[in-house]
Amino acid sequence: RRSGFAGRAERMFGLMDGFLKNDPWSLQKDVMHHVEYTVARSRFSFDDFEAYLALSHTIRDRLIERWHDTQVYFKRKDPKRLYFLSLEFLMGRSLSNSTVNLGIKDQCADALNQLGFEFEQLVEQEGDAALGNGGLARLSACQMDSLATLDFPAWGYGLRYQFGLFRQVILDGFQHEQPDYWLNFGNPWEIERIHVSYAVKFYGAVEEELLNGVKRKVWIPGETVEAVAYDNPIPGYGTRNTINLRLWAAKPSGEGDMESYNTGDYINAVVNRQRAETISSVLYPDDRSYQGKELRLKQQYFFVTASTQDIIRRYKDSHSNFDDFSNKVALQLNDTHPSLAIIEVMRILIDEENIEWNRAWSIVCDSFSFTTHTVSPEGLEKIPADLLGSLLPRHLEIIYEINFLFMEELKKKLGLNYSQLSQMSIVEEGAVKNIRMANLSIVGCHAVNGVSRVHLELLKKRVFKDFCELWPQKFQYKTNGATQRRWMVVSNPNLCGLISKWLGTEAWIRDVDLLIGLKEFASNTDLQHEWRMVKRVNKMRLAEYIEAISGVKVSVDAMFDVQIKRIHEYKRQLLNLFGIIHRYDCIKNMEKSGKTKVVPRVCIIGGKAAPGYEIAKKIIKLCHAVAETINNDPDVGDLLKLVFIPDYNVSVAELVIPGSDLSQHLSTAGHEASGTGSMKFLMNGCLLLATSDGSTIEIIEEIGNDNMFVFGAKVDEVPALREMKSSLKVPLQFARVVRMVRDGYFGHKDYFESLCKTVENGGDFYLLGNDFMSYLEAQAAADKTFVDQEKWTRMSILSSAGSSRFSSDRTIQEYAEKTWNIEPCKCPF
Ligand code: GP0
Question: Which reaction does it catalyse (predicted)?
Fold first, then answer.
């Protein structure tokens, strides 16, 4: 066993000797070794999938080596660590990303080539790790990449769902959900830690016990299961640091075996115990809606207690008391989903570590910070008190106690303003008593972050107004970001090669601010030419994919216009569809001569609807119905095509984003907390057509209004518009397209009726009618610009050049300095 590397040269040298080598020959030998001994195939006959597995194990070995060195180093240095708790991580594929971050992609490609395999093809063998729903979950994944790359001593914690986000299958234009069997073919990227496991208790009752003359609360649980750790190494780019994403899986507990087996019904006893595994079996597919389901609460607590037990165990390994806890441990809550951790740490400190309440509470508050991702009060998680009390009786007691003390404090500060007190209370009184997880998180954390500047403003003005007035310093924002490693280097290598060539360095991959250097070449005709060639190649790749999945042939000369994200009314995919119908209607009613002036478009829409979200599912069906009509209309031909990309996920995004010219971000102003898709398009030189909402507002400031197509009502205008809605006149063009749908132009008249209703008769909550003309103008401006290829390309280059602020590296740096108070800890090899 290695122990300490006091930095002595000879010792390091000895260690270096032991490192796995990364030249193509050594990689090849390792791949063949894994073909034969891990995959157990003959080296004379193995297919792409088996080659993918063998290569993955080859990479995995290198990850483990770095992981190990990093963890040993962290342990020795004992820096303050960040623990990032999130119920969702949308990691996507790992192979390509790992080889890029390890800096061995070219060597791997060479090695495989000589064995008769194509690296790019092996990459396609891997399925996505889709342990999350959308923006929030992908943000966690991007932030893990930045934490590793910036050498922060951080760990992620999450749940190892056996079934990730459902697979979307489209039958006759309707969405159907199928289970995501992502683990069925094995997962080379995880390390099972059968010895790292913790007991997780549920139900039962709380009793009082007298211990050495002191009264103590003891929780006698009714059910116990086991949480087992699976570690997923996260390599940084350009550093040896490799951090950990530890995911928990539920297993039956070994405790109390005798009891349950003694009943004599052995078979049933085994089968019943096996049900423990259901806790971590499936990801809830509803983006931002909470139903107070017991299984969901079980998942949350299961994940929270395993993680906090692990964190406290690690802390106690090198500290004899809790004096230093908040100087050594930062706990970050990704939304309210893991907020029971506040209560769990409190419980451990007072019930198990015998720490006095006030001291425990200040340790908790100093350690925890919280990020909220929503703007709508309805999006805030609430848990019925009855449910919480039956599953976690001791935790409910602690919540009541925290709330009691908080209310007392408030009364002192604010007097007896009952309406305000009841607004701020952690406990919502009413027919059903609820626990407000956001209020709990605000009270129990030292920092609350929004995800864009305007998001913080909305928190202050609306969502958490009272809390912001009470604790103004607590409320901050860190504008989201995306990692340029995955969203540029992995997914758009041609563009990256070009950028590095013109910048004369690859350093921007770590130091993203260097991208601004492209600005001075934005009008350079050589760069412009090469830039367009790269785009064209990416569009060809996308066109092939589109043909393969939909049979629709599209021309790469057309503008590729893309909207990919979860389907939500507020994201207004319906506005996009209405715009497409309008465009179609115009083409249909045109003279032959007019048609020559139309800028050909390929409209691409992709995204999943939550399984129970009827309106979102109707939007998907409408997209298919409209596509059916347009794509088969000989009057239209190549002037307009509409394609729905099924089963949108991270790897589909990696293909689509580099191949798009224009991307749409249409949320009604004031509804998108941040938005992160836009950032990925921006980096890749796709122009944005967007409302002034969330982080887009900051993108506009960064690259300028004239480098994108902005439209629609502004955040401040929306409330007043809503008030006047019923008296506003709907534009004729809007009424006409809605009528086409309503009258059955695209079939399914009855089915679409309720969809039409959402925008008719003053019901138009998301203001599609109000923004429609402005939207069409922005679209017309995009058409006009597209014809001017020089101008378009310059805007495209300026988009990439101006994207550095939207790197998750910047976000993480800000969190590290202002919220977590952590410093880099770089493994010295
Ligand atoms: C927000 F509340 N987001 C939620 C949620 O439950 N799920 C989710 O994905 C998103 C926001 O809508 C966002 O504006 C934001 O950028 C992202 O979280 C990360 O902060 C767009 O996806």
Answer: [(1->4)-alpha-D-glucosyl](n) + phosphate = [(1->4)-alpha-D-glucosyl](n-1) + alpha-D-glucose 1-phosphate
Q: Which residues of 687-697 are buried (b: 16+ CB within 10 A; e: fewer)?
A: bbbbbbbbbbb
**Cross-strand pairs, 202:** 223
How far is CA 473 from each of CA 443, 469, 813, rounded to the nearest angstrom?
A: 13, 9, 19
What are the C-alpha distances in Å from 476 to residues 340, 410, 438, 819?
22, 22, 15, 9
Catalytic annotation present for 373? yes
Structure tokens at 544: 């092939």
Atom 8 (ligand 1) nearest CA: 136
Find, among 439, 660, 485, 633, the residue nearest to 560 by Cα. Answer: 660
* Residue tagged active-site, from 566, 617, 641, 794: 566
Q: Is pLDDT above 90 for 292?
A: no
CA 481 to chain centre: 11
Residue whose CA lies nearest to ligand 1 atom number 13: 675
Residues in Cβ contact with 295 at an 8 Å cutoff, skipping those fewer than 6 apart: 278, 279
Round to whole Å and give the CA distance between 361 and 364. 5
676 noted as active-site residue? yes
Tokens of 675: 């938005």
**CA 585 – CA 737 distance, rounded (Å):** 8
Q: Which amino acid is at 47?
A: D
> What does residue 208 show for φ and ψ, rounded to 5 degrees?
-100, 140
DSSP 482: B
Angle, helices 437-444/340-347, rounded to nearest 10 degrees: 50
Check if 680 is active-site: yes
Rounded to an integer, the average pLDDT of 118-141 is: 98
Task: Give CA–CA dist 688/662, Å, rounded.
Answer: 6
Q: Could you confirm whether 372 is annotated as catalytic?
A: no
Does the CB atom of residue 670 touch ligand 1 within 6 A? no
Q: How far is CA 19 from the centre of its chain?
A: 34
Active-site annotation holder among 565, 665, 671, 794:
565
Domains belonging to the chain, first-starting first, are 1-77+104-123 (no CATH), 78-93+128-162+172-479+816-820 (3.40.50.2000), 509-806 (3.40.50.2000)
Characterize 8-21 residue by residue with b for buried, 16 or more Cβ atoms within 10 angstroms of its Cβ, and e for exposed: eeeeeeeeeeeeee
- Mutate-to-test residue for ligand 1 from 87, 136, 572, 680, highest number of ligand atoms within 8 A of CB: 136
Burial class (CB in 10 A: 0-12, 13-18, 19+), 465: middle
Residue 471 sits at the vertex; the CA angle it makes with 465 and 477, to the nearest 5 degrees, is 75
Q: In the chain, what percentage of residues exceed pLDDT 70?
A: 97
Q: Which atom of ligand 1 is nearest to the CA of 134?
A: 9
Would you state the structure tokens that stand for residue 145, as one six-digit string?
């990449």
Is 673 near ligand 1, meaning CB less than 6 Å away?
yes
Q: Looking at residue 19, what is its pLDDT?
A: 85
Please, are residues 707 and 518 in contact by the beta-carbon 8 Å criterion?
A: no
Determine how β-strand 191-202 pairs with β-strand 223-235.
antiparallel
Specify the ligand 1 atom closest to the Cα of 451: 20
d(CA 591, CA 153): 65
What six digits make up the tokens of 444?
Answer: 């129990």
Between residues 724 and 503, the one the model is more confident about:
503
CA of 767 to the centre of ligand 1 (A): 21
For residue 233, what is the enclosing H or E element? strand 223-235
| Nearest Cα residue to atom 21 of ligand 1 | 675
> Model-level pTM greater than 0.90?
yes
In the 3-class helix/strand/coil scheme, how is 772-791 assigned residue by residue?
A: HHHHHHHHHHHHHHHHCHHH
The single residue listed with the structure tokens 């914690």 is 157
Helix axes 525-550, 493-503, angle to 10 degrees: 170
Q: Where are the alpha helices (DSSP H) in 368-492?
A: 385-391, 393-414, 418-424, 437-444, 453-458, 465-470, 484
Angstrom distance (rounded) from CA 374 to CA 672: 7
Residue 1 has pLDDT above 60, yes or no: no
